[in-house]
Structures are given as structure tokens and as C-alpha cells.
């Protein structure tokens, strides 16, 4: 039977995430200006304790992974601020692929670190420059040589590449995308410049170069068997889609509040159908986007192939976020164009959804 | 707990309905499009005599499922995937029945069930729209005047779906909305049951015109003239105080997702047909590949997929709320507004993408484009549904946002 009622535990997570979102909203502008996460974001993220709750006891955590629960939280966190939501979810970038597709050894050895009370950033290197970037057909390659995988290529938008102890590098192995766990300091692994993007400024991402970077074969995600990369990509797309719903909602709610108090030609802006109807359309599309996200997340949690669902959810939610943010800029008029108001920041951030892949996973 | 697992019972009902659509509907769809005002009696009789044994939800009073409305929208979608005009021929208490379900007294509900126990297909209809007003239904002029032990109804109603089936083809009934006090605005508007005494015999009621339409041509849309039409006092729906205008609005909370589901069925038919034709031509849709690497056709299709899924999931959500007995006015309007828009867009785009074949009458696609256009018009136009949603999310009254 269909049901659209989160569990009681999930309600608690939602409430906690909403509270964090308020904090994120307050620090959002300063963090964007500084191009650094606010100092209290990582610890705030740990309060939610979602990652340890996703990791089974035998690996140091106290629960089971649930993409739906993460999706519910991610929407709320990104409603506060997208960069902050990405910071909170960043440890997942290494931890969840290991949990979902790692060997027993990889899980036992590496997961416990993410169950600590302190924030341990994770990192995944999927994206590459070039308009033909395709996660299923990467230019970065891995070749098996003398019991080691040798990685070569250039990556971009790698979250926390400089700060993480482990970076999960995705590369083509005989044409299929696979994951490789590279330890900070491995020869041939070089973190290059901090990315300067138009949006997502507070979220630290870097370029990374891999030049004959050799790692033991045992550091391939999933060992000899490898990993189910499409699954990981789907989980990553659902993460970004859930966050897109949050950004869209932030833009819409702000626009509505503004349009109700701003008077033009003797009545509130919101009383004009050209605005009110747009609000109705966004509210509709945001509800729909959330349903697409939940469906894809539910499929992932229930062992179904979520490729189509996750893809459609990311496309749809990303489009809604962009147009809702764009509308917010317009509704605010000249003020929308200034950095005194959040709409321009949402527009810059929302533009990223269609482009970004693999910078979050739930 | 959030779940997207449809129940086994609904899946089985859906499968049966698909078979009905393939065998009893699709093969006849073109004929009835070419012959507006003829009626698909084979299909109607099949549903009445056979189909209802399996699709029990079409027979009022029969136990069906713990989520009856969820079941209903799945059937609506699947029948409309066959042909939305045929959906409008289904002998079951759709529009008028919904009004009784939401505003009727127990006695009135029982009378409804009785009418559907006979051995001949029966229909009900709902007459709200008038020549000078459709969207602004609070402006209707049809009059109801109490005279002794009856109400006397006068006025003209337009675009009444299934009026001919309800009053001439069967001993069904109309729910007629009329005002008891024109100076009272929407507070004066009340629903009345106008029952056929026998097929073709309803004193004071005349069907003066059957519309010629762009699509939905297997469904009859009639002009109904009420001239001193007398109904007993107890035919005021909802009993003596009537639930009036609010009742009509409540009817929409389930009628809108019903129609939204029909739209999704038409859109799915068009999208599936489009994909099949493209597959024959060797065009593969590469789901999962970043959109900027797709061909224009692939991109159009993945966008259509997402839009249709959006409309359908909004409909499912609105239906779930109905079964949960939770308020769903906003969600119903969202489902309807989205479906209305998506159905038109998808069917129109599919015709474009298939070029000359799409534009030709050799396939049903062009028909689905004409048929699908109705979804954004009746049961509240797209604009009216946007008004409903906007008022709710803005916290505005009808005066604040008109
Ligand atoms: C095939 C068919 C079957 C039908 N079946 C039934 C039936 O069974 N029973 C029944 O009672 N009616 C039925 N209708 C009537 C239908 O519900 C009305 O046509 C519809 O509600 C629109 O009303 P209208 O045609 O008077 O258009 P109008 O109300 O005149 O609207 C014209 C246009 O203006 C827009 N508009 C109106 N008000 C506003 C506003 N405040 N703000 C912005 N835009 C606005 C509308 O959206 C529309 O685009 C049917 C119609 C058709 C075509």
C-alpha cells in the first residue's frame, strides 16, 4: 500500500534538521562571502548523528542506512543552506560507498572513523572537466599492474579533497566506472587549486590530479568484485535532488513572504495573478519533486533499480530549484539582484544542480 | 512509513482493466471519434454485465478495498489510457455520484445504490455550468423555488456530461445546482436530485442540444433545459439545510484527482506510443546520461517522463489523502492543474516528434491530443485550480485574490 507518512523517528530527524536549517540560514551569507563553511556547521551536522545511525553496530555505528531518512533531512538542511547541507553530508562521500559496496575488510577498517563524535570529512572524485563529462564513461582510467591499480586523470569539484584522509576516486576500469580508495599523501595524488565556482562557494571543492597514482589492489572499492557504480550514482542523484527540493522551497517561501508585504499600485504584490499563479505552480512542482525524490529513495532502500527514478528526480527537482530561485530574484525586483538579499545566492547555487554529479550521496 | 508499493489488489484490478482497454476500447475508439453522438453500447453492456463483476468499485454498495479511492484513480487512468471518452461512458455514479457521496444523507445514498442495482446500465450527471458562467459557479442563475411539498427548478444548464445517458438512455439522475436566493450569492446555491421516472421520461427536463466537440467525442455533452421541473422536498441533497456550495467544492476534492488520473492515462498512452515508434526507428533513450549529452528527442522524452511522473504522483498523493480522510483541497487542485497541463503538453509534443505520422489520422495519437485537451478545462480550469492553490498557500480569501 502507498503511504506518504514519515515514521515517528523520521519526524524527529525532520524536526532536528529544521532547527539546524535556521542556524544555517543565519550563517549562509557570511560563509558564501568567506568561501568557507561557517565554523559551527560541521559540529551542527554531527548533532543530527545520521551517519552513525546509518552504519551497523559491527562497524561502529548503531543503525541501518535509509536513503529516505537522509532525503527527508537533506531537504530541510538545504532549505537552510545548500552549502551547509553538503557539508553535513560530506562524510557520506567516503563512508556510504564503503558501507554499500565495500569489502568486509574495508568496512571493518574504515567505517569506525565516521562514527566518532568529531566531524570526519569524506571525499569523492567523480567529476571531470569538459562538456562531454559522463559518469558512465570517465576519462580518468585505472589499470591493474603488478598487484596495484594505477590511476591517471584529472578530476574537478572534489569535495574536501585537501582535508579528507581518504578520497574515493572514480575511474574507468576496462570502460566501466569503478571506485578506488586513495589515501591522502599517496604519490601521484595531487590536490590542486580550490575551485572558484559561481555558486556553492562555501563548500570546499578542489581540482585533483592523478599521475601514475598506484594503490594496492585491495583498495578498489569492493575488492576484486568491484562495486555497483550505477547504484552509487543513483544514491548521489537522489541526494542532490532532495537538496534541490529544499532550495526550491526556500526560494518560494521567501518570495511569498516578500510578495505579501510589498505593496504595489495599492495592493500586495501577491494579489496579482501573474505572481500568485507562479507561486501555485512552484508549490505544485515542489510537491511533485518531493514525490519523485521519495520514490527514487524508496526504490534504493528496497533493492529496486532506481536508475530512471533517480535520474528523473534529479532533473526535475534541479529544474524546479533553478526556476524557483530565478523567480525569487524577479519577485524581489532590484533587491533580488543585490547581495543584501538571499535570492541571488539561491540562483547561483541552484544553477549547480544540473551540472553537479557525485558531490553528495545518501 | 513512506512506501511506494502499490497493493496487490490494485495491481490485479489494473491488469484486468488494461485488458479491457486493449480488447474492448482501443479497437473501437476511432469509430466513435468519427461518429459523435453514437454510443459504444458493446462496451457499456460489457461493463454493466461482466466488467463490474471484477471491477466491483463501479457498482455502488459493493465492498471493494480499504483504499477505494486509490483503486478508483488506477482504474480511471487505465480506462483513459484506452480512451478517455469511453471513461466518460462508464455506467457508474461518477460526477453526480460524487456529489451524493459528499453531500447526501444516508437515505439519498441508499437511493443511489438502488438505482445501480437494476439490469440496465445507469448513469448520473452533474449540472453546474450555465451559459453566462462556468468558472464563477457562485454566479449561477438557475432558480429553485419551494412550492408546497416540492421544489420547482427553472434554468438552463450547459455542458452536462452524461446528461443524455442519465435521463434518456437510463433511469438515472442529474444533480442540478440552483439558487434558492439569488441575492445570497454562493450561500443560496444548493444541489437538487432530478430523477428520471423512466428512461426518457423526466417531466420538466429537456435535452436541447448535444455539443459537437474537438475531442472526447464518444462522450455526450448536453444542454439541459429545466422548465418548472418539480422534485420532492427531500430531493434537496444533504437534507433540509443542504450542504450547498461548500458541498460542491468538497465534491471537487475527489473529482479533481479522478480527472487528473484520466489525464495521466491519456498522456501515458501518447508517450508509450511515441517511444514504441521511436524504438522501431532504432532510437534509444539513454536514461542516466547527463542531459547536455542527449539528442533533442531524447531530452524531450526524459522531460516528458518526469512531467508525467510528477502529475501522476501528485494524483496518487491526493488520492491517498482522500482514503486517509484528510483535507486535500490543495493537493487535489495541484494534481488537476498539473495533469491538465502535462496531458496537453505531452500529447501535443508527441504529435510533433512523430512528424507526418503524428499528424495523421492513421494512428490514435492525434485523437489523444484532441481528447487530452479537455483535462485542463472541466472540473475547474487550470487557472481556477491555480487560484485555489494560490489562495491556500498565500492565506488569501476569494476577495484577496480573484
Ligand atoms: C466536454 C465538457 C464537459 C463538461 N462537463 C461538465 C459537466 O458535466 N457539468 C458541468 O457543470 N460543467 C461541465 N463542463 C463545463 C466546464 O466545467 C466549464 O466549461 C469550465 O468550468 C469553464 O467554464 P466556462 O466554459 O464558462 O469558461 P469561463 O469561466 O468563462 O472561463 C474562460 C477562461 O477564463 C479563465 N478564467 C475564468 N475565471 C478566471 C479567473 N478568476 N482568473 C483567471 N482566469 C480565469 C478560465 O480559466 C478560462 O480559461 C464541461 C465542459 C466541457 C467542454
Description:
The complex is a heterodimer of chains A (362) and B (402). Chain A has helices at residues 8-34, 41-48, 50-54, 67-80, 82-89, 92-101, 104-110, 229-261, 273-301, 307-331, 343-350, and strands at residues 124-125, 141-145, 148-159, 166-173, 176-183, 189-194, 205-216, 263-264, 267-268. Chain A has 362 residues and is of the alpha+beta class. Chain A has 3 domains: 8-115, Acyl-CoA dehydrogenase/oxidase, N-terminal domain (Butyryl-Coa Dehydrogenase, subunit A, domain 1); 124-225, Butyryl-CoA Dehydrogenase, subunit A, domain 2; 229-354, Butyryl-CoA Dehydrogenase, subunit A, domain 3. Chain A is globular and about 80 Å long. Chain B is an alpha+beta fold. Chain B is globular. Chain B starts with 7 loop residues before the first helix and ends in an 8-residue tail after the last helix. The structure holds flavin-adenine dinucleotide. The site of flavin-adenine dinucleotide (FAD) has 23 residues of chain B, from β1, β3 and α13. Residues 95, 125-129, 133-135, 159-161, 213, 216, 221, 374, 377-378, 381, 383-384, 387, 402 of chain B line the site of flavin-adenine dinucleotide.
Supply database-style keywords.
A: 362 residues, Butyryl-Coa Dehydrogenase, subunit A, domain 1, Butyryl-CoA Dehydrogenase, subunit A, domain 2, Butyryl-CoA Dehydrogenase, subunit A, domain 3, 3 domains, 11 helices, 48% helix, B: 402 residues, 4-stranded antiparallel sheet, 13 helices, 50% helix, globular, binds flavin-adenine dinucleotide
Amino acid at each position: 500500500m502507498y503511504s506518504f507518512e514519515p515514521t515517528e523517528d523520521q519526524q524527529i530527524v525532520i524536526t532536528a534538521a529544521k532547527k539546524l536549517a535556521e542556524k544555517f540560514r543565519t550563517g549562509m551569507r557570511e560563509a558564501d562571502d568567506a568561501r568557507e563553511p561557517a565554523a559551527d556547521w560541521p559540529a551542527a551536522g554531527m548533532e543530527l548523528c545520521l551517519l552513525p545511525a546509518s552504519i551497523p553496530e559491527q562497524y561502529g555505528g548503531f543503525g541501518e542506512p535509509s536513503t529516505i531518512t537522509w532525503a527527508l533531512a537533506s531537504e530541510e538542511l538545504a532549505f537552510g543552506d545548500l552549502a551547509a547541507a553538503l557539508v553535513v553530508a560530506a562524510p557520506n562521500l567516503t563512508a556510504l560507498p564503503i558501507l554499500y559496496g565495500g569489502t568486509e575488510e574495508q568496512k571493518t577498517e574504515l567505517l569506525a572513523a565516521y562514527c566518532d563524535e568529531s566531524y570526519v570529512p569524506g571525499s569523492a572524485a567523480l567529476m571531470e572537466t569538459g562538456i562531454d563529462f559522463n559518469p558512465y564513461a570517465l576519462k580518468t582510467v585505472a589499470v591493474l599492474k603488478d598487484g596495484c591499480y594505477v590511476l591517471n586523470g584529472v578530476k574537478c569539484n572534489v569535495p574536501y579533497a585537501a582535508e579528507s584522509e581518504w578520497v574515493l576516486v572514480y575511474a574507468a576500469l576496462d570502460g566501466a566506472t569503478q571506485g578506488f580508495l586513495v589515501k591522502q599523501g599517496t604519490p601521484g595524488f595531487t590536490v590542486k587549486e580550490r575551485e572558484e565556482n559561481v555558486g556553492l562557494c562555501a563548500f570546499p571543492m578542489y581540482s585533483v590530479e592523478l599521475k601514475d597514482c598506484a594503490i594496492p589492489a585491495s583498495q578498489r572499492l569492493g575488492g576484486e568484485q568491484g562495486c555497483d557504480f550505477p547504484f552509487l550514482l543513483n544514491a548521489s542523484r537522489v541526494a542532490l535532488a532532495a537538496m534541490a527540493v529544499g532550495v526550491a522551497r526556500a526560494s518560494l517561501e521567501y518570495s511569498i513572504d516578500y510578495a505579501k508585504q510589498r505593496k504595489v499600485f495599492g495592493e500586495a504584490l501577491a494579489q496579482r495573478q501573474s505572481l500568485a499563479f507562479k507561486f501555485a505552480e512552484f508549490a505544485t512542482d515542489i510537491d511533485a519533486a518531493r514525490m519523485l525524490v521519495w520514490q527514487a529513495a524508496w526504490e534504493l532502500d528496497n533493492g529496486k533499480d532506481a536508475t530512471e527514478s533517480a535520474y528523473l528526480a534529479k532533473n526535475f527537482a534541479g529544474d524546479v530549484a533553478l526556476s524557483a530561485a530565478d523567480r525569487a530574484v524577479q519577485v524581489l525586483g532590484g533587491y533580488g539582484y543585490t547581495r543584501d538579499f538571499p535570492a541571488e545566492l539561491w540562483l547561483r547555487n541552484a544553477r549547480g544542480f544540473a551540472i553537479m554529479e557525485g558531490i553528495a550521496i545518501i | 512509513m513512506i512506501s511506494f508499493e502499490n497493493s496487490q489488489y490494485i495491481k490485479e484490478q489494473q491488469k484486468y482493466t488494461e485488458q479491457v482497454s486493449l480488447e474492448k476500447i482501443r479497437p473501437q475508439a476511432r469509430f466513435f471519434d468519427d461518429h459523435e453522438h453514437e454510443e459504444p453500447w458493446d462496451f457499456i453492456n460489457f461493463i454493466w454485465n461482466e466488467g463490474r463483476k471484477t471491477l466491483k468499485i463501479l457498482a455502488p454498495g459493493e465492498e471493494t478495498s480499504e483504499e477505494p479511492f486509490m483503486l478508483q484513480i488506477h482504474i480511471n487512468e487505465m480506462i483513459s489510457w484506452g480512451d478517455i471518452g469511453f471513461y466518460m461512458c462508464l455506467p457508474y455514479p461518477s460526477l453526480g455520484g460524487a456529489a451524493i457521496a459528499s453531500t447526501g444523507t444516508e437515505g439519498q445514498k441508499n437511493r443511489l445504490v438502488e438505482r445501480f442495482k437494476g439490469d440496465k446500465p445507469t448513469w448520473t450527471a452533474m449540472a453546474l455550468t450555465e451559459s453566462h458562467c462556468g468558472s464563477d459557479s457562485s454566479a449561477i442563475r438557475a432558480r429553485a423555488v419551494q412550492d408546497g411539498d416540492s421544489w420547482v427548478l427553472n434554468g438552463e444548464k450547459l455542458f452536462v456530461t452524461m446528461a443524455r445517458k442519465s435521463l434518456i438512455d437510463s433511469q438515472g439522475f442529474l444533480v442540478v445546482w440552483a439558487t434558492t436566493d439569488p441575492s445570497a450569492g454562493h450561500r443560496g446555491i444548493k444541489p437538487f436530485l432530478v430523477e428520471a421516472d423512466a428512461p426518457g421520461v423526466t417531466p420538466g427536463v429537456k435535452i436541447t442540444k448535444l455539443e459537437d466537440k474537438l475531442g472526447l467525442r464518444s462522450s455526450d455533452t448536453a444542454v439541459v433545459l429545466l422548465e418548472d421541473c418539480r422534485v420532492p422536498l427531500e430531493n434537496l441533497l444533504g437534507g433540509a439545510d443542504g450542504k450547498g456550495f461548500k458541498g460542491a467544492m468538497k465534491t471537487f476534492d475527489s473529482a479533481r484527482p479522478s480527472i487528473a488520473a484520466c489525464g495521466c492515462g491519456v498522456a501515458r498512452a501518447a508517450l508509450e506510443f511515441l517511444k514504441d515508434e521511436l524504438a522501431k526507428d532504432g532510437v534509444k533513450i539513454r536514461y542516466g546520461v547527463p542531459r547536455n549529452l542527449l539528442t533533442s528527442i531524447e531530452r524531450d522524452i526524459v522531460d516528458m517522463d518526469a512531467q508525467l511522473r510528477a502529475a501522476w504522483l501528485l494524483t496518487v498523493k491526493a488520492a491517498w489523502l482522500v482514503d486517509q480522510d484528510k483535507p486535500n483541497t490543495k493537493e487535489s487542485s495541484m494534481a488537476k492543474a498539473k495533469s491538465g497541463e502535462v496531458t496537453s503538453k505531452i500529447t501535443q509534443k508527441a504529435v510533433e516528434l512523430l512528424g507526418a505520422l503524428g499528424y495523421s489520422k492513421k494512428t490514435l495519437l492525434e485523437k489523444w491530443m484532441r481528447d487530452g485537451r479537455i483535462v485542463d478545462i472541466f472540473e475547474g480550469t487550470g487557472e481556477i485550480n491555480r487560484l485555489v492553490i494560490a489562495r491556500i498557500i498565500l492565506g488569501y480569501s476569494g476577495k484577496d485574490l480573484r
